[in-house]
Amino acid sequence: KTYTYHPTHMSPVATAATDTYLGYRYCILWRESHGCHMSTIPGVIVKFSPKAFAVLGAGAVLIAAAGCSSQSSSEGGANQNAASGGDYNLSAVAQPANKGQALLSAINSATKSIDIVIYQIGGPEIPPALAAAMKKGVKVRVMIDGGTTGNATKGQAFVTQMQAAIAAASADASLFTAHWSSDNFNLTHQKSVMIDAVDSNGTTLASGSMPSTASLLISTGNFIPNVTPPEPFYGARDFYVTTPDQDLINRASVIFTSDFSCAGRDVTNNPYPGQNVGPQDDPKLVWSNGSTGVWTTDQQNEYPAVTQGYPFGYPPPATESKTPTDQGNSFDTQLNLIKGAKQGDTVRVYNEEMASYEVTQALIAAATPVGTNTSAGTPGQGANVQVVMSFSSTNGKPSSTVTSLEKIATAGGTVTMFADQNNPAFKDVLYIHAKIITVTSSDGSSKGFVGSENFSDPSMQFNRELGISLDSSTDQEVLGVLNNTFDTDFKTTAMTTQLTPANPTNIPASWLTAAKGFTSPQAQPNNGMRVGAAVQGCGPITVSAKK
C-alpha cells in the first residue's frame, strides 16, 4: 500500500499493511534539502553551523525563545563558557551488573539536596535510601511523569512508599516534595538525579559555587522494575553516566527548577540569562525539549495547551500548524551521528523502539554499501551497522519496530534481537532498554550518545528527555563501557536471534507462536499522548492518607 502524508511531514512509502508509520517530523522536506535550523519566526529558515551558534550567542539567534531563570544570583554568575568543551570527568556503569549501586551511592553521597526527574520510580530499594538521606537533613524533590493513567498510578504508589519510609526512618517529612511533571511536554521521559545542585531555597547554584559533592547522574533506564516484580529496578540492560562537572549540573538543574515550578507555555528554556547555550544548542547535553507553535491557535513560542496536547497520526487535524519549532537538539544530534558514519566505521545501536522513519532510513543508508543507493535514493555509506534490541510483537506478528530492523539488515546491517521479556514465555531473558549510539572509526576514535531518548519522533520532539554526547578525546572510559557491553550482548546466542543480509527475517517460529494473543508494550510506542492529562496537571502529588 502507498500512504500519502501531509506535505509538511515526511512522505514515507509503506510496502505492507504492517508498515504503520508512528509519529512524524515537522518540516522534513526543508531540513532534508537544506540542512537548516528552524528559527522561531514563522516561515523563516536560517542556516547556522554549531560554531556560529556558539559565537553569536543566544541574543543574536534565539531572541524569541528566552525563558525565565531560577538561577541563584547570590551564588555568582552562570556559566559563560558552556560551549568551550573540555573534560567532563564522565564515568559509566552498566545495569544490571552494577545492581543499581551508582544510583544508591549518589543518593547516599548527598549532603544538601537530591533532585530527581523520572518517568517511573518505585520498588523496595529507593524509598528507604531517600528517607535515610532525609534523616541527615537532605532535601528531596522528585518530579514524576503524569502523562498516562499507568504512570499516575505508579507515581502515587511511590509517594505512598515514601511516606512509609519516612515514618520508618523518623525523618522530617517536610524535606520531601513530589510533583507531577510539566504540562509543556507529551511525556516527561527524562531519567536523571542531581546531587547538591541547589541552595537552601531550592534555587540552582551557579557553576563553581556548588559543593564538591555535587553530581549529575543521567540514566537510560527508569528506577522501577521493567516487568512485574521480583525483578529489581536495575534488571534491564541500561546505563548510568555520572559527572561532577558543575557546568553540566548547573544546566540540568536550571531546567529541572523551571519544570518543577510548572513554568508556563511560553517558557522554552532556550537559553537562560547569563548562559550562552540552551537545549537547542547545548554542546554536551542532549535535550528533548518539546515543540512550540504546534497548533494554529498557538503563538510560535507557546507549547500546546494540555487540553490539546501534541498531534499524533494521520490525517493531521486542520488546526495543526505547519511551522512548529522543535525546542531541543535531540533529533539532530542522534541523526547526525548516524549520517556521519563512513565506510569502515562501526555503528553500534541499542534502543527500545525503532519508530522514527528518518532514523530508520539513516541506519539503512549507513549500512548500504558505498556505490549503492537506498530505495529512497540515498547514497550508501558502507558502515558496519550493528543493532541490539528486544523483540516485540502484536498478536503473533512482528511489530513495526521489528519490520524496520529487518529493513536495516536487508540493507547490510546486522541485528541481534533478544526474545521479548515482556512475554511470560521469555521472562528470564535480559530486556534491552538502553538507548545509545556509538560510531567508531578505523583509527579507534569514537563519538556517541547515551540518554533517555528512544527512536520515535514524539520522544525526540514532544517529550522532555535528557542524554549526553560523547567523544573519545575526553570520554574514552564511558565509550569503552558502552562498546564493551554492547559487543558482549551482540555476540550472545542464548534466547536471541540474528538478522543478517543473508537472512533478514530470521525470527524463530517459537517466538511468533508465543506471541499469539499477546501484544508487547513497545509494539505501539506512541500511544501515551498527554491530552487532558491523567493527573490534575503539573504540581504537587497528593495521595489519600492511610486510615
Describe this structure in words.
- With 547 residues, the protein is an alpha+beta fold.
- Helices cover 25% and strands 18% of the residues.
- It is built from 12 helices and 22 strands.
- The chain has helices at residues 28-34, 50-61, 101-109, 126-135, 149-169, 246-260, 330-339, 357-367, 400-411, 457-461, 472-490, 509-515; strands spanning 37-38, 45-46, 91-95, 113-118, 139-144, 176-180, 192-195, 215-219, 238-243, 285-289, 291-292, 325-326, 346-350, 384-390, 393-394, 397-398, 414-418, 436-440, 446-451, 464-471, 496-499, 539-540.
- The strands form 5 sheets. The chain has an 8-stranded mixed β-sheet with strand order 3-9-8-7-4-5-6-22, sandwiched between helices. Strands 10-20-19-18-13-14-17-21 form an 8-stranded mixed β-sheet, sandwiched between helices. Strands 1-2 form a two-stranded antiparallel sheet.
- Strand 1 (37-38) and strand 2 form a beta hairpin.
- Helix 4 crosses helix 5 and helix 7 packs parallel to helix 8 (357-367).
- The chain is globular and about 60 Å long.
- The protein starts with 27 loop residues before the first helix and ends in a 7-residue tail after the last strand.
- Residues 1-70 and 72-84 have low confidence and may be disordered.
